[in-house]
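Subject — a protein and its fold
Encoding — discrete vocabulary of local shapes:
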Amino acid sequence: MKLADLHTLFLECNAVCTDTRKIKLNDLFFALKGDNFNGNSYADAAIKSGAKYAIIDEEQYNTSSQTILVNNVLKTLQELAAFHRNYLKTPIVALTGSNGKTTTKELINTVLSKKYKTTATIGNLNNHIGVPLTLLSMTEETEIGIVEMGANHLKEIEFLCTIAQPDYGYITNFGKAHLEGFGGVEGVIKGKSEMYNYLTTHNKTIFVNLNDNIQNKKTKETNRFTFGNTTDNTDVSIRFIDAQPFVTCQYNALEIKSQLIGDYNFNNIAAAITIGQFFKVDALDIKDAIENYIPTNNRSQIIQQATNKIILDAYNANPTSMHAALLNFEKQNGQKIAILGDMFELGDSASEEHQSIANLAQSLHIDQIILIGENFNRTTINTPKTVQFKSFNAFTEGFDIKTVEHATILIKGSRGMALERTLKLLP
């Protein structure tokens, strides 16, 4: 079947789905394969559950007039997404970076939706499957699309850009994330910069934080729109005021009081303000959008539980984000307890990076430090305020967290550690 013909069938459907448990009437089912499943075997179930068509790539499952046989389901999904993107011609804002992608994406969406009908990446569905699904969720009503792109190796952002074909792009930062896949920090910079390369080659607009030296240097000869915590040579000036307890900044003589903790979130807020101004969103609407955005999904959430205030930042972690979170946490008042979980995908740097974070935590004015995970368990500790546990189960068995009261607690670790489970242990 030709791609244009498949797109015509797609337009007859209500949505794209890859999980039979979530099928709704008149969905288009893509039978993707994983390490432990073959989506082809679920095609019949998808149709019986209401799917209008099922895209498959194994002949033996082509048993219905509603099944469509292709050479490769994943490749077809990606090609259809690119075709649909060109069919709509909707302006696309793409973003990537080591830290803060999802928060920044949510802020941008919140700001732009004050003026436009937007469609944005749901959660962090930002990979070779998530980006196509985001594009295919856009309709003719979508005025601006906001696409988050994640990567853990070189050439991935480059590939995602060929699918989404962004008109605008922003890189949050270059940090110590996915070092194993990228081969070190220089690899991270090179990999994330693939977005710059695409935008520059196609003469598109790059949003640049001039306070980031790497961003500034790499985009000097590009079509860029800049911002910074300064009034010098920027298109948009946004002044940082403080982050106690939440980030407050000044823009267009307006004081904006966010509900985001940590001065590291200033740049995320500033990027959303800048993109809002670029797209001519009213300044008061920008202020309202930022001030009413409340973080969710274990990202910089503030939770009051009994007598304890919890900073739940357990969605993910890498050395850069962990370092920033600890420095911000030290500024909190009262008794402070840091519960830190292992950081994943660091490769040969894992031992060094975990020791560095352990050293930093122990050097700060934090009353108690709890390190959880195999990597943190191997670090050398030098203060009695630090305890180590090889696993989450060891932590639950060896530490009576129910005795913790009247404390501010930071919970941060990589997704695989699932440290949000700690909440159920607190009184």
